[in-house]
Amino acid sequence: MADKLIIVESPAKATTIKKFLGGNVKVLASMGHIRDLPKSKLAIDIENDFTPEYINIRGKGALIKTLKKEAKNAKYVYLATDPDREGEAIAWHLAHILDINPEEVCRVTFNEITKEAVKNAIKEPRKIDMDLTDAQQARRVLDRIVGYKISPVLWKKVQKGLSAGRVQSVAVRLIVEREEEIENFKPEEYWNIYAKLKEPKSKKSFQAKFYGKNNEKIDIHSENEVNQILSDIEKAKYTVEEIKKGEKKRTPAPPFTTSTMQQEASRKLGFAIKKTMSVAQGLYEGVKIAEKGTIGLITYMRTDSTRISEEAKKWAKDYIEKEYGAEYYENRYYKTKGDAQDAHEAIRPTYVELSPEKIKASLTNDQYKLYKLIYNRFIASQMATAIYDTVAVKILADNYNFRANGQTLKFKGFMTLYVETADLEEKEEFEKIPELIEGQELKKEKIEAKQSFTEPPPRYTEASLVKTLEEKGIGRPSTYSPTITTILARRYIEKVQKQLYPTELGKIVNKLLVENFPDVLNVKFTAEMEEQFDKIAEGKEEWKKVIREFYGPFKKTVETVEKELEHVKLEYEVSDVPCEKCGRMMVIKYGKYGKFLACPGYPECQNAKPLVETIDEPCPKCGGKIQIRKTKKRRNYYICENNPVSCDYISWNKPGKEEKKAVKKKTTSRKTAKKRTTKKKK
User: Fold this and answer.
1) Edge-to-edge order in the sheet of strand 650-651
2) Is 190 a catalytic residue?
3) 42-47 — which CB contacts under 8 Å span 24+ positions?
4) Among the options 300, 328, 418, 590, which is catalytic?
5) CA-closest candidate to residue 188, choices 228, 229, 219, 217
6) Exposure pattern of 225-250 as b/e (b: 16+ CB <10 Å)?
7) Tens of pLDDT along 436-494?
C-alpha cells in the first residue's frame, strides 16, 4: 500500500515526478479531464441557476475504478494537476470522483517539474481554490450556452455541421474584416528622392534622403512634383548644415509568455501554434536526458507573466558572467501587464546549466529548436543593453533639405546571443556615413527618384492573430491554440503560405453572426467577459451572477433571430467536372478532410467524389500528372496519377524543386567559369 498517491494529468508528467520521489509514493495520470459536460445536449440546467450537469467521460470507467481503488488504499492523496484554472478544475472533478472534501489540503502545484519544486509542493499542500475552479466553470458554461444556442440557428438557416463560439467567432471576424480592408484598399502614390553624395577628402559616398524645403517636411505624391524639385536642385550645392552625434540603446525582450513564445516560434521556426504548444508541453512534462534521467526542462508553458524568480535570476547571472564576462550582465525586472495572471513565472529553462547544445543529443529536432529559443530568450533577458553610436546629418541643397542617419554597433550586449524577430524586421534606413564637418561642401554623384505605392494591411498569420487577440484581451494563454485549430477545422479560414484567408463559408457565417448577434461578436464584449472571469478567479465576482446577467438579453436575441432570419443559401464554387449520374456541373464543397466535388442536385442526386488537384510539374518517373493529396493531419503529399498501376512515384516534396535548384547551381557555376575565363584572356 502506497503511503502517498499523487494524481497528475499525463503519463509523461507522472513518469518524471515518480523519479523524484521515494518508493512509497504512487503517481498516476488522469489522462486529462475525468468529468465534463456531455456532447449530446446543452447539459446546463438553466432553470436551476445554470447548474452544469457533468458526467464521467466515456471510456474512462476502468481508469476511474483504478484511481478510486488506489485512493482508498493511500494514506494521503494529492491532486497535482497543472497550476492554472483548467488544472484546478480537473483537481476539483477528481476530488468529486474520489470522495475527497475540497476543503481538505489535497492540492499541490508547481510551476516547474524539478525535484526540489515537486518535493516542496508536497510539503505544503493546500485546499482546492474554488475561485479558480469557478472561473473555469464560468468560461465553460458561457461557451457551452453560446455554442449550443447559436450553432442550431446556423444549422437551420445555413447548413448542418456549422458552429459558433464566443472566442472563435470573434477571431474569424478579425480575419474577415482584415480581408475586407485589403479588398477595399486603394493604393496611393508617393515618391522618394535620394541623393548619392561624396565626401571630397575620403572620397567615401553615402546616401541622403529628401526631407523638405526650409526645414518643413514635404510629402511627394506625383511625378510632376518630383520633376519640379529635381529642376530646382539641378545646380544646387550640397552643404552639411548640421551633425548630431549620439548614442542609442536597445534593451532585450522579456522572457517568453505563452503568446510571445507562440509568435516567435512561428516567425523564427515556422511552427504552427498547435505544434509549438505540443512541443512545449513535452519539454515541461519531462524529457529523458542522458545521465540525468527524465526531467522537466522548462517552466509551465501557459502563462501571461514575464516575472522570473530571484533564484532563476541568480542562475542567469552566474551563467552570463562565466560565459560572456561581467560586463554582459544586467539585473532586469520585467513588469507584467495589468490584466495578466501573475501566478506563474515566465517560460524559462529549469536548469540553466543544461544548455541546448549540451543536451541536443537527447532531444528531437523540434524539441531542440524550441528549447534553444526559450533558453536563449531567457538568458538574453538578463544581459546588458546593446549600444549604438548614432549620427544624424542635415544637408542643405539651396532651400531644400536632405537627411541621412547612420548607426554603428558599439557594444553588442544581449544581441551577442539573441535578437527578437521584430527587431530584425525594422525598416529604418541607416547609412555608413563618413566623417563630416558642418559647413563643408559635398559632391553630388547621382540623384534618383523612386515611385512607390501605399500597401494594404498584411493578412493575419497565426503569430500576428495571436498577438492581436492578446492585445485586444480576447482569450487567455490556454485558448489561443485551440481557437485557431477550431476555425481552421471548421473551414471558416484556410492557411496559404502562412497567411490566413477567410473562406466563402467563413464570410457568410461571419456576416450572419455579426448582423444578428452583434453583442456576442463584439470584440469589446468578448474582452469584458475575460475580465469578468479574472474577477471570479480573484474572488471578486460570483460566477453564476455573471452567467445570469448575460443569459437574459442573449436568450431574447436567439429567439428573435430564429423567428425572423430567412434561410441563407450558400453559393458554392462551380467546377468544370460534370456529374456522371445527372449531368449537372459539380460544385466544390468542404468536408472533414478538405475539398471534395458534390452534385448540386442533392438530395435528388447524392453523387460525390474527391477533388483532385494537380500541379504543372510532370512526374519525374513517368511524365504523368502529379496530384496533391492530404493526410488526415492535413499535410500535403505528391503522388503520380498512375500510382499504383504503372508508377510508384510518391513524395512529401514537390517534384521539380530539387531539380530546379541543381540546374540553377550548374548554370551559375558555368557563368562564373565563363567570366573568369574572359578575365584571364584580357
Assistant:
1) 613-618, 625-630, 636-640, 650-651
2) no
3) 42/144, 42/145, 42/148, 42/149, 43/144, 44/141, 44/144, 44/145, 46/551
4) 300
5) 219
6) ebeebeeebeeeebebbebeeeeeeb
7) 999 999 999 999 999 999 999 999 999 999 999 999 999 888 899 999 999 998 889 99
